[in-house]
Design a protein that fits this description.
Blueprint: H1 7-22, H2 53-56, H3 58-88, E1 94-97, E2 101-104, H4 105-131, H5 149-166, H6 172-184, H7 186-192, E3 215-217, E4 234-239, H8 249-256, E5 258-262, H9 271-276, E6 281-285, E7 297-299, E8 304-306, E9 313-315, E10 321-324, E11 336-338, E12 344-346
Antiparallel strand pairs: 1-2, 3-4, 4-5, 5-6, 7-8, 8-9, 9-10, 11-12
Helix pairs in contact: 3-4, 3-6, 3-7, 4-6
């Protein structure tokens, strides 16, 4: 079969294909070659900085300054309102607030005033930052975690510039009202400390024991005679003028509860402790001086009283001194005698406060 194509034409086409193959178009790649972008994506950078109205109009800046100062002033007034409400509104006052209904007037007043005080501080700070402080954006290359001296100097210089641009030194109205609001709002927490209870004054140093108080069995309420206390036994007791039905019984018994033990006179090591007892009968506070648990686990052979909470151990034959454990003081001893009716009685109150240590204790 004959080929009708013109040899001259065929040669020209071959030359053309060769030229196209050798001089490929930009962006194309030959077989087996990786594609390489001639123009990588350019960094668009930050958009041009747009000045705020406050940056170019001092009257607008003054309005923003007054707005920030107003918010801080409202915060101060709200804090004062919190303190006034806490003092003036009775705790049992019930008010009707629509649409909530009947609620505690004190809680509503405290929540409203404290919330307003905190909100105005936050709103004032945000408005100050958005309208008066510098808002120009800058980008910096990442650097190693450990800063060089030059970087540290740069950061300090930037901090100085930021403080200067914030206007805290120039805008005294904003600065002073902010300091006043921030200084006053912690008073709300200080006032709430009052809810921890009344000050103890000297209540921790005094108990229900008085001179002549008859010692009664804590379980039966019967007065105790010396013959009721046998060697090797431990009896829990309290003053006779405490009544289980009194409203403050638990507060009083927590300080006045005692335990009686009887030792052979020759087993008592502390002469003062022996003198404060009666015929070998010793009376100690049973309230552990660590955290106030009853230290009434008694070992009659060793004369040791053990607290079950943290294993503080007291030697009742030696003035109830601490032998082991976290307790910091001996158990206070109550000086006792026998009254005209033959009952064991106290000669006064404890010389040392019973129970755990406290701040004012010497």
């Amino acid at each position: 079969m004959s080929d009708d194509r013109d040899p001259t034409t065929s040669s020209q086409e071959t030359e053309t294909r060769k030229d196209v193959s050798d001089d490929h178009l930009p962006g194309e790649r030959r077989s087996g070659e990786l594609a390489v972008l001639d123009d990588p994506f350019a960094d668009p950078g930050l958009p041009p900085h747009e000045h705020r109205r406050q940056d170019i109009d001092e009257r607008a800046a003054k309005r923003s300054e007054r707005t920030v100062a107003l918010l801080f002033t409202v915060s101060m007034l709200a804090t004062i309102g919190f303190i006034v409400a806490y003092v003036a509104i009775p705790i049992d006052r019930i008010v009707y607030i629509w649409p909530i209904g009947h609620i505690s007037g004190l809680n509503f007043a405290l929540g409203t005033t404290l919330g307003t005080a905190l909100f105005c501080i936050g709103a004032g700070a945000i408005h100050w930052a958005r309208t008066l402080m510098s808002d120009e954006e800058r980008s910096e290359e990442r650097h190693a975690v450990a800063a060089t001296p030059e970087v540290k100097a740069h950061v300090l210089e930037e901090f100085r510039k930021g403080a200067e641009e914030s206007g805290i030194g120039r805008r005294k109205l904003v600065r002073n009202t902010m300091l006043g609001a921030v200084a006053l709002v912690p008073l709300s927490g200080v006032v709430l400390l009052r809810d921890l209870g009344p000050l103890p004054e000297d209540k921790l140093r005094k108990t229900a024991w008085r001179e002549g108080s008859v010692i009664v069995n804590e379980n039966t309420g019967e007065p105790l005679r010396p013959e009721d206390i046998v060697v090797g036994s431990l009896t829990q007791a309290m003053p006779d003028d405490l009544d289980h039905h009194d409203h403050d019984f638990h507060a009083q018994i927590a300080k006045a509860a005692v335990m009686l033990v009887r030792l052979e006179p020759e087993d008592i090591k502390d002469p003062r402790s022996a003198e404060w007892g009666h015929e070998g009968i010793l009376c100690f506070s049973k309230i552990c001086t660590h955290i106030g648990c009853p230290a009434t686990l008694y070992e009659q052979q060793t004369h040791h009283a053990l607290c079950p909470c943290h294993q503080s151990t007291f030697d009742l034959s030696d003035g109830a001194r601490v032998l082991f454990g976290p307790a910091g003081h001996p158990l206070p001893q109550l000086r006792i005698t026998v009254n005209d009716d033959g009952y064991l009685a106290a000669l006064g109150d404890f010389e040392e406060p019973p129970g755990p240590s406290f701040w004012e204790r010497g």
